[in-house]
């Protein structure tokens, strides 16, 4: 017995002819003109003699029963042929299944190869990116070192400038202090001179007054 399976899941292949099951050629079947374009097959898929006898038992005549049997045989044959057009045998299904397994194995191998190639490419790209990152880090360190050196130089220059300005300010302050001390010394000298002049004037005035007083007193006596 042939095993038939739906053809929709498989690739188009040659349809396996459906074998007849227990064909019974009735001696009572007479050749009739076919009303279909499909030629009448000589194999039947049911007991034609038993079917004709049953129709005769239902009250039909022999020609009528044979005509009905012939029409039903054609309809059944057409239905079976239409059904078998969309079916394949188990051998074809197994062959297709084996082909699919081979294709799947090949696809799996190709996918694994593509995955390996992608991983290799990703690893190479990752290594390249890591190298670029290291270069950027090195460049950043160099820039930071250069910037720090520049800042240190600027700070040292600024410190030197501030130190020079501080020295100049100290010199100016010392000059001002010296000038102030000189002026204070001159002022003290002037004050001492004024004191001496005042004392001399006072002594002179006092001596004069005393002389006048003594002269007045002597004149009164």
From TrEMBL:
<dbReference type="GO" id="GO:0016020">
    <property type="term" value="C:membrane"/>
</dbReference>
<dbReference type="Pfam" id="PF07798">
    <property type="entry name" value="CCDC90-like"/>
</dbReference>
<dbReference type="InterPro" id="IPR024461">
    <property type="entry name" value="CCDC90-like"/>
</dbReference>
<comment type="similarity">
    <text>Belongs to the CCDC90 family.</text>
</comment>
<dbReference type="GO" id="GO:0033617">
    <property type="term" value="P:mitochondrial respiratory chain complex IV assembly"/>
</dbReference>
<keyword id="KW-0496">Mitochondrion</keyword>
<feature type="coiled-coil region">
    <location>
        <begin position="88"/>
        <end position="150"/>
    </location>
</feature>
<dbReference type="GO" id="GO:0005739">
    <property type="term" value="C:mitochondrion"/>
</dbReference>
<protein>
    <recommendedName>
        <fullName>DUF1640 domain-containing protein</fullName>
    </recommendedName>
</protein>
<keyword id="KW-0175">Coiled coil</keyword>
<keyword id="KW-0472">Membrane</keyword>
<keyword id="KW-1133">Transmembrane helix</keyword>
<keyword id="KW-0812">Transmembrane</keyword>
<feature type="transmembrane region" description="Helical">
    <location>
        <begin position="199"/>
        <end position="219"/>
    </location>
</feature>
<keyword id="KW-0809">Transit peptide</keyword>
């Amino acid at each position: 017995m042939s095993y038939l399976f739906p053809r929709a899941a498989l690739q188009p292949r040659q349809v396996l002819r459906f074998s007849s099951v227990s064909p019974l050629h009735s001696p009572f079947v007479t050749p009739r003109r076919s009303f279909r374009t499909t030629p009448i097959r000589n194999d039947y898929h049911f007991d034609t003699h038993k079917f004709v006898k049953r129709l005769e038992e239902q009250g039909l005549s022999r020609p009528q029963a044979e005509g009905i049997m012939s029409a039903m045989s054609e309809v059944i044959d057409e239905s079976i042929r239409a059904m078998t057009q969309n079916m394949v045998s188990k051998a074809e299904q197994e062959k297709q299944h084996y082909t699919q397994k081979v294709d799947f194995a090949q696809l799996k191998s190709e996918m694994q190869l593509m995955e390996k190639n992608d991983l290799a490419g990703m690893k190479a790209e990752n290594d390249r990116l890591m190298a670029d990152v290291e270069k950027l880090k090195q460049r950043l360190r160099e820039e930071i070192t250069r910037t720090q050196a520049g800042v240190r130089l600027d700070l040292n220059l600024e410190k030197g400038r501030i130190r020079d300005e501080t020295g100049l300010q100290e010199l100016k302050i010392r000059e001002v202090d010296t000038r102030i001390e000189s002026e204070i010394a001159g002022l003290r000298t002037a004050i001492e001179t004024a004191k001496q002049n005042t004392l001399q004037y006072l002594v002179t005035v006092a001596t004069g007054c005393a002389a006048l007083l003594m002269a007045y007193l002597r004149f009164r006596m």
